[in-house]
C-alpha cells in the first residue's frame, strides 16, 4: 500500500507543479480552483485501479467522488468561460499585495492545496488501497445515500446562486431558496457529503470521522465561509440578513406550513 500511496502522491505533486507553471504563463492563479476537483478524481481512479481487490464500498466511493468532481468542475469552469484571462478578485488582490509573488504563490496556493488535497483524500487512499477488510454493505449504502443527499443539495445551492447572479443588481444578495435557512448551504451540504464518505471509509477505521471533523472545521473557519464573509461584510443588507439567518447549520424552524 505504501508504494502505491507514494506513486499517487508524487503524481499529484508533479501535476501541481505543472499547474503552477501554467498559471505563470497565463498570469492567472485562479485556475487552481478549476482543477481542485480534477485532482480528486485522479486520486480516486488511480487508487481504485492500483488496488487488486475491488469491494462494493470501493466502487461506491469511486462513483461518489467522481460525481462530486464533475459537479464542482463544471460549476467553477462555468464561471471562467468564456475565458477572458481575468484573474479572480481574491487572487488578484494577492498578486498586487504579495512581495516575491511567484515564490509565495507557489507555496501558499499550490503547495498548500497539494497538502490539503492529501488530507481531504486520505479516506480515498486508505479505502481504495486496502486489500482486505470486513465489508459492511449496510454502512456502505447508508453512507452512500447520505453523500448523495449532500451532493444533491450542494448542487442545488450552486444552481440557485448561478441563476440569481445572471440577473442580480450590484447591491442585491440571495436570501431565498436554501439560503433562506442558512447563509452558506453549499458548505453545509459539502460537509454532509464528506460525512457520508467518512461512513464508508469507517469500515477500515473509525478515525475517519475525526478526518471529517477536520474538513468541516477548515471549510467553516478557514478556507470557505470566512472568505465569503469578508466579501459581503461591507453590505448593509447582508448585515441585516446575517442577523436572522445562521451562518452554517440550516434553521428549518423558519419553515412555515400553510393550514
Q: Which features would summarize this protein structure in a list?
A:
single chain; 259 residues; mainly alpha; 72% helix
What's a quick, concise take on this entry?
The chain has helices at 2-26, 31-34, 36-50, 56-80, 89-97, 101-120, 122-129, 137-167, 185-201, 208-223, 225-232, 236-244.
Question: Could you please describe the fold and organization of this structure?
Answer:
There is one protein chain. By secondary structure, the chain is mostly helical. The chain is 72% helix and 0% strand. The relative contact order is 0.11.
In total, the number of strands is 0
**What's the gyration radius in Å?**
20 Å
Oligomer: single chain
Order of secondary-structure elements: HHHHHHHHHHHH
Figure out the total of helices.
Answer: 12
Structural class category: mainly alpha
Unreliable sequence segments: none
Question: Roughly how much helix do the residues carry, as a percent range?
Answer: over 70%
Q: Describe the largest sheet.
A: none
The N- and C-terminal alpha carbons lie at a distance of 59 Å
Content of β-strand: under 5%
**Which overall shape is indicated by the principal axes computed on the Cα atoms?**
globular
> Taking all residues together, what is the mean pLDDT?
83
Amino acid at each position: 500500500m505504501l508504494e502505491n500511496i507514494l506513486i499517487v502522491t508524487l503524481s499529484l505533486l508533479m501535476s501541481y507543479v505543472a499547474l503552477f507553471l501554467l498559471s505563470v504563463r497565463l498570469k492567472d492563479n485562479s485556475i487552481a480552483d478549476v482543477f481542485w476537483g480534477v485532482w480528486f478524481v485522479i486520486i480516486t481512479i488511480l487508487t481504485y485501479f492500483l488496488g487488486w481487490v475491488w469491494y462494493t464500498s470501493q466502487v461506491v466511493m469511486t462513483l461518489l467522488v467522481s460525481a462530486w468532481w464533475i459537479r464542482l468542475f463544471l460549476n467553477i469552469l462555468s464561471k471562467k468561460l468564456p475565458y477572458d484571462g481575468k484573474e479572480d478578485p481574491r487572487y488578484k488582490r494577492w498578486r498586487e499585495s504579495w512581495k516575491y509573488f511567484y515564490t509565495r504563490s507557489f507555496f501558499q496556493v499550490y503547495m498548500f492545496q497539494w497538502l490539503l488535497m492529501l488530507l481531504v483524500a486520505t479516506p480515498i487512499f486508505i479505502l481504495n488501497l486496502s486489500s482486505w477488510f470486513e465489508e459492511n454493505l449496510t454502512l456502505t449504502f447508508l453512507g452512500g445515500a447520505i453523500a448523495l443527499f449532500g451532493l444533491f443539495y450542494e448542487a442545488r445551492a450552486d444552481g440557485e446562486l448561478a441563476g440569481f447572479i445572471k440577473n442580480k443588481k450590484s447591491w442585491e444578495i440571495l436570501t431565498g431558496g436554501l439560503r433562506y435557512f442558512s447563509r452558506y448551504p453549499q458548505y453545509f451540504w459539502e460537509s454532509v457529503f464528506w460525512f457520508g464518505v467518512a461512513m464508508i471509509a469507517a469500515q477500515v477505521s473509525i478515525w475517519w470521522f475525526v478526518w471529517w471533523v477536520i474538513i468541516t472545521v477548515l471549510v467553516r473557519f478557514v478556507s470557505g465561509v470566512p472568505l465569503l464573509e469578508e466579501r459581503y461584510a461591507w453590505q448593509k443588507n447582508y448585515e441585516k440578513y446575517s442577523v436572522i439567518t445562521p451562518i452554517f447549520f440550516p434553521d428549518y424552524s423558519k419553515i412555515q406550513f400553510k393550514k
